[in-house]
Structure formats: C-alpha cells, structure tokens
Amino acid sequence: LIVDARDTLFQLDPFGKGAPQVSGLHLFAEYRWIRANHKFIHRPIKQCKGQDFEMGPGPMLCSGSTIGTRDTMIRYINIMYQEMKLWAATPACKFKGHGKDQAIHNYLFKMGAFDELNLQVFFPRQGLVNTVGIMGTKLETRLYEQSYGFNSTTSSSSKKSDIMNKLRGTTDKTWIGDQFELTDHRGYFIDYDGQRSRVIHQWDRFGNAVQDWAYKNILDEDK
C-alpha cells in the first residue's frame, strides 16, 4: 500500500479481517465524472508527449493511493521510476506546479504499462481506498451557492470555511448530516454498500468540521 501521508485516514485495516484479497494492482479514480482529459494531467502530458496526444475518455486516476501484492508493487514502482527519469531528462516534460506524478501515473495507464499487473480500477466508495476530495469540493460549492447565490460577488475563503464548519444536520456524534449519505451515524465515511470505508484519501477537503472529528475519533494518539 502506497498513500499520501498527509491526507489519509485509516478507518479500518485495509488488509484486516473481512477485507477483500488483493491479487494484483489496485488503482483508484479521483471521481466517477472526472475524466483523464482533465487539464490537471492532460496539459502536462501534451506538453511532454506532443500536442497530438489525447488521453481519451477514461477516468482520471489518483497517484496518491496504490495497492498491490509485493511483486506487483515492485514492478509498478519500477515502471513509474523509469518514466519519471525520462521526464526529468526531457526539457519539454519539465513544468512548474505539482501533479507531475499524477500525469505520469495516468499516462502509463493509458499506454497500457500496467496491463500485465492484473490491474483493477476502483471508483470512490467501491475499493479499499475511498478518495473523497472532489466530493468535498463539490459539496462545498453546492452549499456556498445555496447560501450566497450562484453569481455571488462576496466569495471569500472565510465564507467557504464557515459553510463547511456548519454542515446542516451535524450532531454531537458526527460532523455531517445523514442527508448527504457519506457517513454512518458516528461520522465514519462509508462505501456504497453502507460499510465503513477502510482507507480515506483527501479527507481534509471537507474542512475543519471533519478535521475536529478525525482528531477526536481516529488521530488521538492516546486512544
């Protein structure tokens, strides 16, 4: 298991009792409706590989979480490393900003570099890792528009923070209302089958409300 350390929560052991057996390489999509031609990865790929290169209609995969067997992960890391060296040595592949690893991750997937690794792709709330960042961003946008209007000229980080800090339906046992259908009655993120997600990636995109809950229920080292 490889995950971004800063924004990952373990609600359950990903390899513990009841977890599905991992037999190959598990990759995880950012969101069902975010495609691989998104500018975040498509722009650097086209800059590196040529303006005629197209990623096509597949999902944008998140490079911040990957799971596999020991042999599969060694092969995956080596494939990524070789491509990273190529990008680092190619002037056209150098660009400012973050996200180069995600661009490489998606480019290699598109080119079939992982096809022999018994590959499976999972959408949020379906696999061992539940990537929730875009859900949080979309929820923030929806609540903001409901509160301040679609054409509001008063947009500010403080207002957005206030929106996420006061998610409607919040109780003393959870941090978000049942109407959003993202968590169980104790605030733990859930998959579509109603079971608690084992690993949560990008959890902090939901703001201070979930962060306060997480530090109290999961991240408290004394528990």
In short:
The protein is an alpha/beta fold. It has helices at residues 39-49, 70-88, 100-110, 133-148, 157-165, 208-217; strands at residues 2-3, 8-10, 25-29, 61-68, 119-122, 129-131, 199-201. The two termini are 24 Å apart.
Written account of the structure:
- This protein is of the alpha/beta class and 223 residues long.
- The protein is built from 6 helices and 7 strands; from the N terminus they run E-E-E-H-E-H-H-E-E-H-H-E-H.
- Helix 1 crosses helix 3 and helix 2 crosses helix 3.
- 30% of the residues are buried.
Secondary-structure map:
Blueprint: E1 2-3, E2 8-10, E3 25-29, H1 39-49, E4 61-68, H2 70-88, H3 100-110, E5 119-122, E6 129-131, H4 133-148, H5 157-165, E7 199-201, H6 208-217
Helix pairs in contact: 1-3, 2-3, 4-5
Largest sheet: spatial strand order: 1-4-3-5
**What letter string, H or E per element, gives the SSE order?**
EEEHEHHEEHHEH
Mean pLDDT: 87
> Could you give a short account of the major beta sheet?
4 strands, mixed
Residue share in helices? Answer: 25-40%
Q: Radius of gyration, rounded?
A: 19 Å
Structure keywords:
four-stranded mixed sheet; three-stranded mixed sheet; globular; 6 helices; 223 residues; alpha/beta; single chain
